[in-house]
Amino acid sequence: MTNQCVVGVFESVPQAEQAIHILDRAGFAQNHVSLVTRHIDPTSDVAKELNYGDDSLRDAAIGATLGGIAGIIGDAALFLIVGASAIVIAGPLVAATGMVVGAFLGAMEGWGVHKSHIEKYEQLVHEGKVLVVVDGGPKELAEADRMLRQAESTEVHLHAKSSADAAEIDDRP
Amino acid sequence: MTTDNARARFKNAIGILVDEPGGIKQRLMIAYISQLSRIDPNQDLPERLMPQFDRIKFTLMTDEVSGDRGAVSKELEKISDDEASQIARQLFDMFLELHDLKETSHETGIDRR
């Protein structure tokens, strides 16, 4: 597992989807790119793409939107632990999906994101913003950082853990 | 200097311009950010193509009023579909030139007739 990541903040799911598409076209492995959102349209491109990827995740994602909560946490939590490409939903099912998002955002600490920034990201997601999170090596992250800035992001931050208590090497506004 | 990186990036970019769904501006944005922005003109391009590439880069990344580098998506909002198509055509010409296909493509066109 890498201990650094880039986080791009987007106003809407379509904008974030487009950024993910750009990363995909640039050759970024799907299992290093995650999308965090409050809600997702089951007919959206992301949901459709999930159809060709991980069915359990798609079902979990759509299920969460529709309110079918059974089994979601198990699938999503496992998904997050193995570090696969993730769609994380903080929807109206606050207690359940909140836990999933909390788990994911908590895992971001392992990617060098300081707790205070995790809280900020959590707040942004609750406000309806969409996060695209890319983990990887320094070279890939420099590329991802540049690409997310050139896409429709409102802000992009590069996080890296340099030691146990050094939160970040770079956190540009 | 080798043009391998530029050749590969241009090939991918043209593929995106042709294959991608959506409007020309969206295709251009994806092609530019995912492929062409990773070309270093000084390292990867023959000298004769540098000015043209720099002009395209300027159009897609620089705010004309302030001169600041902006997001490609925002700069694309300022140009028309026709202008975006023109840039795409220029990129295709550069692709042909990089792959030494420019003359061949004309000959092929003549042969078909």
What does this structure look like?
The complex is a heterodimer of chains A (about 170) and B (about 110). Chain A has about 170 residues and is an alpha+beta fold. Helix content of chain A is about 45%, strand content about 15%. Chain A has a five-stranded mixed sheet with strand order 3-2-4-1-5, sandwiched between helices. In chain A, helix 2 runs antiparallel to helix 3 (about 55-65), helix 3 (about 55-65) packs across helix 4 (about 70-80) and helix 4 packs parallel to helix 5 (about 95-105). Chain A is globular and about 40 Å long. With about 110 residues, chain B is mainly α. Chain B has one domain (about 5-100). Helix content of chain B is about 70%, strand content about 0%. Chain B contains seven helices and no strands. Chain B has helices at about 5-20, 25-35, 40-45, 50-60, 70-75, 80-100, 100-110. In chain B, helix 1 (about 5-20) runs antiparallel to helix 2 and helix 1 (about 5-20) crosses helix 6 (about 80-100). The interface between A and B is medium-sized, with 14 and 16 residues.
Estimated structural class of chain A? alpha+beta
Oligomer: heterodimer
- Number of beta-strand segments of chain B: 0
| Helix count, DSSP H or I runs of 4 or more residues of chain A | 7
Mean pLDDT of chain B: 86
Characterize the main sheet of chain A.
5 strands, mixed
Termini separation of chain B: 39 Å
Strand content of chain A: 15-25%
Number of domains of chain B: 1
Radius of gyration of chain B: 14 Å
Unreliably modeled segments of chain B? 107-113
The rounded Rg of chain A comes to 15 Å
Mean pLDDT of chain A: 67
Helix and strand pattern of chain A: EHEHHHEHHEHE
List low-pLDDT spans of chain A.
Answer: 50-86, 89-97, 164-168
Q: SSE order of chain B, as H and E? A: HHHHHHH
Q: Per DSSP, what share of the residues of chain B sits in E-state strands of 2 or more residues?
A: under 5%
